Amino acid sequence: MRTLKIYQVDSFTAEKFKGNPAGVVMNVDGLTDLEMLNIARELNNSETAFILSPDGTDHEVKIRYFTPQTEVPVCGHATIAAHYVRAREKNLDSSTVIHKIGIGILPVEIIKEGNDYSVIMTQGRIEFNPPLAKQERGNTVKALGLKEDELDPRCPIQIVSTGHSKVIIGVKTRSKLDTLSPDMLALTEISKAINCNGYFVFTMDSEEKGVLTHGRMFAPAIGVNEDPVTGNANGPLGAYLVKHGLAEYNGSGFSFKGEQGNAIGRSGIVDVTVSLRNGKPEQVKIGGRAVIVFKTKFQL
Fold first, then answer.
1. Where is the active site (predicted)?
2. Enzyme catalytic residues
3. What DSSP state is assigned to residue 93?
4. pTM for this one?
């Protein structure tokens, strides 16, 4: 029998019971895939991060991510949670940590702010798929409960990835975004056809100072009907805004704040930074705050 240390962390917020909850499990070396999946299922967060020792000299820590149904290659809010816990446990100073995750070996910036921390993760390679074909687009719009005249005409519906792809859908108004009621079974079936499990609906109809976008993310195909605040959706959105000329930027960078989760009472803020080269998005970083809700020990 072994004892694991488990944290429940709310990411992209400094306020408990807001943002996106993630499980963080420490000292998991030697656990089987099934044991990790069972723990993730028991915690029942959209994702749980498992912190492992490095398996090479090119990184300091290895992290794996599980939903209650399956392993995923990367998760934004669980990364913020995992590194926040690790920084607190190790009393780290501001520093850069190199981690190994499902999409590769990447840096994470730890920023000490008094007695607390914020975390910034570099996301994976930016990839744009062509806009969805007519039938797939129509099926997606219908499954989301949208009408054509409610869509933002500036925004093609397409899959974008910075490591874990999402379908990006723009709508005109915040009121429509907040009242969406998608057909989850239909979205699950569409996911099989387009090989993408997440649908990120956003609007630039924002009246909040300093907030550029509001969004909601649905991923029923992996057991997450609605994810409160999604790093791997807001990150690709940043690249998308640049590509389609929806963002104003100067020089080689563009930064904004994206709000998500308000419609389900778990509002959080994702800080997104897009590096550009020759006017094209080259790299995305996302960051935010976190807060520990509870920690416990678990015998397995």
1. 47
2. 47
3. P
4. 0.94
